[in-house]
């Protein structure tokens, strides 16, 4: 009798741990790259000008948009059979019927 290798999904806790590790690694890489670029161009805290309210609001909006995109990636919507796929074309049968009559 053959043994079947069944897929055993990881527990939710293990999955959350992996996501947390990936987030931490991503944050570390991003910080390292940004610090290197700023250092390369001679940017220091002393040389920075304070942001005006308009710039602050633009940054807040950008962060909210990014957070929304991350949430959508983490929690993809379930596609049902009734939902048309992007690759599917809808056929206009009325136009063809008119020609046949």
UniProtKB/TrEMBL annotation:
Recorded superkingdom: Bacteria
Ranges of biased composition (kind: Basic and acidic residues): 1-11, 68-91
Annotated spans, Disordered: 1-24, 68-101
The name this protein goes by in its record: Spore coat protein
Organism this protein belongs to: Pueribacillus theae
């Amino acid at each position: 009798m053959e043994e079947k290798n069944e897929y055993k999904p990881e527990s939710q806790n293990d999955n959350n741990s992996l996501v947390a590790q990936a987030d931490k690694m991503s944050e570390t890489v991003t910080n390292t790259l940004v610090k290197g670029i700023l250092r390369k161009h001679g940017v220091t805290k002393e040389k920075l000008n304070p942001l005006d309210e308009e710039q602050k609001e633009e940054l807040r909006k950008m962060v909210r948009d990014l957070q929304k995109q991350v949430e959508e990636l983490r929690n993809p919507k379930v596609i049902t059979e009734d939902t048309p796929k992007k690759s599917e074309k809808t056929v206009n049968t009325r136009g063809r019927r008119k020609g046949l009559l």
